[in-house]
Structures are given as structure tokens and as C-alpha cells.
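re the bet — no i am not wrong, look at it urself. input seq straight from the record:
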Amino acid sequence: MQIEDLRRICKSLHAVTEDIKWEHDLCFCIGAKMFLVVGLNATPVSASFKVPDEEFDDILAREGFMPAQYVARYKWVTVDDLNRMRKAEWKHYIEQSYALVSGKLPKKVKKELGIG
């Protein structure tokens, strides 16, 4: 997987924005809340995303997956190499993270963004 592949998946979702935070992290957001963070300063490229509580321990059992620094308590995980997952898996986890984050947005923000 390449960063451009992740970008295409993210940008296919409604009302997604992207920007660089902390000088070296490409962040994809919905309503100013991050749902995918791609570390641009490491080789191989890593990424972090949110998973449901019930999937957190299972995904951490996979090689190359670890609790995300600073946000693991919110069930964020980091994968140390984008190539540890196929495109279909990335699509699933990105869409799932997007849904988890957008689902917690305030009603007013959801209405402004035109989401459920």
C-alpha cells in the first residue's frame, strides 16, 4: 500500500479533510476529528486508526500492530508498515474508523457536514 492509496480511500468518504499536523503526520479528519494518521517521517510508513473496543485486543495480537501512542486508551492502534494489510483490509479499517469518529460528533456538526 502507498500513501496515495490511503488518500483515495479516505477522500472517497463524505466531508473528509486532510492536513499535516506535528510537522510530519498526514491526518485525515471528519468534522475536525482525526480518523487516520499516517506517519510520514518513518520508513516503512506507519499509520494509526481507531477500532471498536471489542476488536482492540485481537488486532494488537497481529504482527506489527501496537497501541497507538497517546491515544490507545481511546482504542487507537498503530501498524508499523502500510504493507501489513491488503487494500481491502485498509478500506475496511479506514471506513470503520471514520464511522466510529463521525458517530461521536455533536449533532450540530453532523448536520453542518450533512452526515447521519
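see?? The chain has a mean pLDDT of 96. told u. also The CA atoms of residues 22 and 86 lie 27 Å apart. so pay up
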